[in-house]
Design goal:
- By secondary structure, the protein is α+β, with helices and mostly antiparallel strands.
- Strands 2-7-6-5-4-8-9-11 form an eight-stranded antiparallel β-barrel, surrounded by five helices.
- A hairpin with a 4-residue loop joins strand 8 and strand 9.
- Helix 1 packs parallel to helix 2.
- The radius of gyration is 19 Å and the shape is globular.
């Protein structure tokens, strides 16, 4: 058995040992107005984290599985407004995306807004599918209120697919999402990329309530680190996109993932 298969099997066994929690039991944990703290690590460290979480966290059960599949398409302007708002560190900033929960085939059009105080607000409406062909009027009204644009002003740029584990602490005061096996497709360049053994962890909670997992992460020397799937996916699949603010992060991500990431862009002339 390969090393990759070994670690995937270890993760599966550790996940099996976590007590399950259903979506209905999690109904009170909305966290639509929340603080998010992201951490980036690899599958080996994730296995250690799941060991420490035993007896302290539930694992969300969805359609009979503790691993959910997601597909997300990000929309942006011709000038990549939402990408560059993040790249340039601007706040408040927004992102427009269409996310499908693959296990239930439920899809939402979403707008995420991060304000100057680090809080993230997410608003969404349910739609029929990724293409937004059946509800343009409703989508235009929704987007017009939140980003002052319509569908004709933006277009799909990057799509990702990934697996997600969701943990909930026994007090049900926080949610921890753990994303891995992330792959990207760029609609403009037709390029694809994968993230190897990279793991993106996000702690979601209202305010600064006590978080058991923070002690576990400190013990494992996993430090907070920003990570945008949209921005990193864009950099990995579009060699012409200016990315100087993400260069160091891309090198660090490669070290964590244990391999040279596919389609890493060459140096852009504007980065010199």
């Amino acid at each position: 058995m390969s090393e990759t298969n070994d670690i995937n099997e270890q993760l599966r066994l550790l996940l099996d040992d976590l007590e399950p929690i259903t979506l209905e039991q999690m109904s009170g944990i909305k966290l639509m107005n929340r603080t998010d703290t992201k951490f980036v690590t690899n599958k080996r460290k994730l296995a250690q984290l799941l060991e420490l979480a035993q007896g302290k966290y539930f694992a969300q059960l969805n359609a009979g599985s503790k691993i959910a599949d997601y597909k997300t398409t990000y929309w942006d302007t011709e000038e990549y407004q939402y990408y560059f708002e993040h790249h340039n560190g601007r706040t408040p900033r927004q992102k427009v995306r269409v996310r499908t929960y693959m296990d239930s085939s439920v899809t939402f059009l979403e707008v995420k807004t991060k304000n100057n105080h680090g809080r993230t607000k997410k608003k969404r409406i349910e739609v029929a599918g990724q293409e937004l062909t059946q509800e343009r009027e409703m989508a235009n009204e929704f987007l017009g209120k939140l980003v002052h644009r319509e569908l004709d002003d933006i277009h799909p740029t990057v799509q990702n697919r990934f697996h997600r584990i969701t943990l909930v602490n026994y007090d049900k005061t926080e949610r921890l999402t753990i994303d891995f096996d992330v792959c990207f497709h760029n609609f403009e360049t037709d390029s694809e990329a994968e993230t190897g053994d990279l793991v993106i962890i996000e702690l979601k909670r209202d305010g600064n309530v006590y978080s058991p997992v923070l002690e576990m992460l400190r013990h494992l020397r996993i430090k907070p680190s920003g990570f945008s799937k949209y921005c990193i996916g864009s950099v990995m699949t579009n060699r012409e996109l200016k990315h100087n603010m993400f260069k160091e992060k891309m090198v660090w991500i490669e070290k964590l993932s244990g391999e040279k990431l596919a389609n890493r862009p060459k140096e852009h002339e504007n980065d010199r």
